[in-house]
UniProtKB/TrEMBL annotation:
Residues 1-30 form the SH2 domain. SUPFAM superfamilies: SH2 domain (SSF55550). The gene is STAT5A. This is Signal transducer and activator of transcription 5A. InterPro entries: SH2, SH2_dom_sf. The lineage of its organism: Eukaryota, Metazoa, Chordata, Craniata, Vertebrata. Coiled coil: none annotated. Transmembrane segments: none annotated. It comes from the Eukaryota. It comes from Loxodonta africana (African elephant).
Amino acid sequence: LLINKPDGTFLLRFSDSEIGGITIAWKFDSPDRN
C-alpha cells in the first residue's frame, strides 16, 4: 500500500475489534539499505 508513495508517507489504521487499537505504518528510505 505504501510502496509507491513518497518517503514520509504514513498510514493510520484503527482497529474494529479492539477498543483503542491503532496501527501506524510509515515509509522511509534508509541510506544504509543495500
